[in-house]
Q: What sequence folds into this?
């Protein structure tokens, strides 16, 4: 494809912009195969953490901040999905079933963070897209940090000997 000639100096005419490729002509990409499960898990994590934060207590602020991080992860993954597929992803309604016991609910969130980290690492190894790979690595590290924070919250609940 030949490049458009540059305008003569002093001329205000700019070359016409090149058209954007349509999603149908983009090469097939396997990245969408793992984006949807990650977005679904992120939506579930967000809903569960928001529900736990509403229970109140001394951990409410930390849980609310984690929920915000999970929501941001969902938005970043959703944007990546749109860039790859040209389609918006909208999750279904999520209503988490949480154990009554706060300790068990925190443990469930801890296990979910470990699962999140493993899924992010697996997806990172599966993608050939460097920007998406970097995003997945970053989200995996964030999941590790969340797991550590949840462990810390559980340790604070431990009764004295």
A:
């Amino acid at each position: 494809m030949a490049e458009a000639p540059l305008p003569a100096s002093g001329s205000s005419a700019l070359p016409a912009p090149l058209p954007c490729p349509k999603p149908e002509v983009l090469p097939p990409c396997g990245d969408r195969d793992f984006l949807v499960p990650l977005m679904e898990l992120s939506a579930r994590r967000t809903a569960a953490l928001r529900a736990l934060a509403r229970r109140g207590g001394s951990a409410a602020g930390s849980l609310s901040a984690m929920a915000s991080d999970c929501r941001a992860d969902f938005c970043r993954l959703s944007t990546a999905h749109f860039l790859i597929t040209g389609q918006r992803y909208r999750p279904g309604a999520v209503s988490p079933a949480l154990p009554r016991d706060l300790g068990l609910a925190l443990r469930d969130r801890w296990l979910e963070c470990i699962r999140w980290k493993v899924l992010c690492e697996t997806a990172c190894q599966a993608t050939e897209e460097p920007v998406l790979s970097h995003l997945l690595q970053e989200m995996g590290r964030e999941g590790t940090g969340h797991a550590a924070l949840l462990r810390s919250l559980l340790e604070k609940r431990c009764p004295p000997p």
